[in-house]
Design a protein that fits this description.
Length: 427
């Protein structure tokens, strides 16, 4: 299967709670359906798409032909009945990422290219084993972030309604709402329940923040990337060029809490740091691979440390995996989220849509990181107390020597600078 490079989007497995949102789905867009299908035709169209494209040719050990016979034998008097059957049919796959969206849900998961969102600012997913709704990461400086929502929080209730058996579509419809209104989330964290009352807001996202840091290792460029949006590459390029002009000796790239975004953005940014080598490969059910490569146009070859944590997902894992496997950077922090699947998103008749898992991706060395994540080269754990203090209570300590993970990055860059100096002296 050929995946159109310019249309493939990959993010963090999930739905970002905003007016227009997905970070977490690979998207291979198709044109709008040109006919008005009957309810039964819509059911069959969904079945056919899964039959042709699903990543597992055994359909996760489900007799997909029998499923078709069962659901096409039913009578449907309206689209809502078809929607219900489609959802039941797809649940047979036990794949939370393959899902049907009615017109309203489909509208609310579109990729936003303007960088402006409306919502609370969290990215969520459904755990494949427990079926619980979990937070991949809060988007920095959003209402959820400021209220203290953290990566890996489990959402137990939304406005008092239990999330047991709830999929991400239903959760999104409950959490979304008008700007200025509130939503109450009951969260499970480390075995303890916590309640958060969050006011919905309009959110403008600037994916890149950067500065020159004076450290014991010299003047370093610090770049924080919050998500891989359409303008992330442009902002990253400007940041690197500005810091190069300021003669920094090395870089710290902070991907902590970055839930992902657009695949082309992660590839574009990888090429700014990598001069040669593979960036990522995608593998479909026929085993066909499509590789994305560096193009010899790196903006800098100075030493690089990348910071990651359990909120770094999907496109973040592509970038950190590419830099790690090509020995371009040292990865510091904790194990990442672990999402290595690609979804194709198809518009259907009447404005509905379908997301289908069509491929998986591997890092350049061939590692399948799905459900595992990227293992850092240097592990630096933070306690929950340290994380809350650093990210919520005393943000001015972030990316300073009082930030243990950043401090380790500085130590590594300082050691590399010393080694380079010795090697230069010996020549």
């Amino acid at each position: 299967m050929v995946i159109t490079k310019s249309r493939l989007v990959l993010g963090a497995t999930a739905v970002t709670l905003s007016t227009i949102a997905v970070t977490g789905l690979g998207i291979h867009s198709r044109g709008q359906a040109l006919f008005k299908a009957s309810p039964k035709e819509l059911v069959d169209e969904v079945w056919q798409i899964v039959y042709r494209q699903y990543v597992d040719g055994t359909f996760n050990q489900v007799d997909w032909q029998a499923v078709r016979k069962e659901y096409l034998s039913k009578s449907y008097s309206n689209q809502e009945e078809a929607y219900k059957s489609i959802r039941e049919m797809l649940k047979r796959l036990e794949d939370p990422y393959t899902r049907f969206m009615d017109p309203e849900e489909f509208k609310n998961m579109q990729v936003d290219t303007s960088g402006e969102l409306t919502g609370v600012g969290i990215t969520i997913s459904q755990d494949e084993k427990t079926k619980q709704l979990i937070v991949i990461a809060p988007i920095e400086d959003t209402p959820a972030f400021k209220q203290g929502i953290l990566a890996k929080d489990i959402i137990l209730e939304i406005d008092g309604k239990s999330t047991k058996g709830m999929d991400t579509n239903e959760a999104v419809s409950l959490i979304r709402g008008e700007v200025g209104t509130k939503v109450k989330l009951t969260i499970l964290r480390d075995g303890q329940k916590r309640v958060f009352n969050i006011t919905r807001a309009r959110i403008e996202i600037h994916p890149v923040k950067f500065s020159k840091k004076q450290t014991p290792a010299g003047n370093l460029g610090y770049i924080r990337l919050n998500q891989f949006s359409a303008n992330a590459g442009k902002e990253m390029r400007a940041a690197i060029r500005k810091l190069e002009a300021e003669k920094v000796s090395g870089y710290v790239l902070d991907l902590r809490g970055n839930p992902g975004g657009l695949l082309f953005s992660s590839i574009e940014i990888a090429r700014m740091w990598l001069d040669k080598g593979t960036i990522v490969s995608t593998i479909d059910r026929q085993g066909e691979q499509e590789r994305e490569m560096a193009n010899g146009r790196a903006l800098t070859d100075k030493p690089l440390v990348v910071l990651v944590d359990k909120g770094s997902a999907s496109a973040s894992e592509i970038l950190s995996g590419a830099l790690q496997d090509n020995k371009r950077a040292t990865i510091v922090g904790t194990q990442t989220f672990g999402k290595g699947l690609v979804q194709s998103v198809r518009p259907l008749e009447g404005g509905s849509g379908l997301a289908v898992t069509i491929a998986k991706y591997h890092t350049p060395s061939g590692k399948d990181i799905n459900k595992h994540g990227i293992d850092p080269d240097v592990v630096v754990n933070l306690t929950e107390g340290q994380r809350e203090e650093l990210w919520l209570k005393e943000r001015d300590k972030l990316a300073t020597l009082e930030d243990p993970q950043f401090a380790k990055a500085v130590e590594i860059l300082g050691r590399q600078a010393t080694d380079n100096s010795k090697n230069t002296g010996n020549n």
